[in-house]
Amino acid sequence: MTVSFIYIVILIGISIALYYSTPKAALRNSLLLSASLFFYYAFEGEKVIMLLTVILTSFFTGKLLCKNGYKKYIFAGGILINILLLLTHKYTLAAISNPSSSLPVGLSFYTFQSIGYIVDIQRKKDKEIYTFIEVATFIAFFPKLLAGPLERVDSFVSELRKKSSYNGKRMFKASKIIIFAFVCKFVFADNLGYYIDNAFQNDTTLSSINIFVTATLFSFQLFFDFYAYSILAIGIALLYGIKLSVNFNYPYFSSSFHDFWKRWNITLTSWFRDYIYIPLGGDRVSDIRWALNVMIVFLISGAWHGGAFNYILWGFLHGILYITERYSCRYLPDYYKENKILIFSYRCFVFIALSLLWLIFRIENSDVLIQIFKRLFLFSSWDIHVEMAGWLIFTILCMLTFTKYRIIEKYIFNVKNTPVFILKEIFLINLLIILLLFFSTSGNGSFIYFKF
430 is in which domain, residue-wise? Predict the structure, then answer.
């Protein structure tokens, strides 16, 4: 899976020209659906049949739910079909041992979109019947198809139904977002990935400090990789006048594990909350039942990423930390909750714990994982890889700068016609282009979350 000439020229260029030259909304949406299906077929070939199966299941289940009779059976049947499609393709031995050849890319995301759609239709008192084109485009819209963000049908269809004419400011804003997404991917994520891959190839010789640096770098690689796709989806959708949800909000500056899951992959977290956690009873139950609900959600979240044991372990440990944090905070004196040194120390602990847990996420071989963690706490050697340390410092400084001055929110996600703003905007855009020209890698452009 690569960011290819076909994707950029045919889908983005030609489809936008056709989109804005088509006056009727229904024809525009048909064009979007055709472009989306072509996109998926171009990269996945016959696996587009799986996408079409999910689309047809969603539409006909929703249509039947809007009528009287047998609603429980129809609802259960629609959900079951999606779950079975996901289970049979994602958790077979072939898929676990060789995901790239067995698993349709984006399957986890578009089946979740389908399940969310069916649940939303079932919950509505006043059933609104969406057209086939609207439902199909909601599930298959190509900017978000492969790795989210996960949208809600009401908000997405309302975007489709808007009469959106060509707007130069919006196109310029979208272009800035796309350029920044490429920088996040090809300058940050892929460069970090180069050092991380090399480090894991020599995992038997990694010192304690290099393991910690590698874990931290992988935290940033995963963030920049997934963040890049999420804002790339936002930017490309904006070219068509469609707004998608924000998926990240500086997650590594979280004050707690609870705060982290409100900032990381926001749309997936809200999906788990609304469609699994709350139906299980949420926090309106006893403490033991609440802890069980949380653990179920985290275990499903781990299994959603893959059937290998490391993903289940990753979800389980996150559940333990989340539950322990809540119970600990309940009995913590107010003095400690307001102590700035303790607050800062806990923030550091949260980030370190997240980084070490990402190691479990990254290393599927349990024997290698055990050896890595054994050496991590031996502190037998303090030699450090200078280039890796340099990238770590550079990345942290960039994130701190962007966060403190809110540079991205001000100058990438906004457009203003003031001279000062335009000068700063031009400087930042040129800086991003320079970074792309001189620091981008020659990788294949594949995003990490495509394998989930």
Answer: 169-439
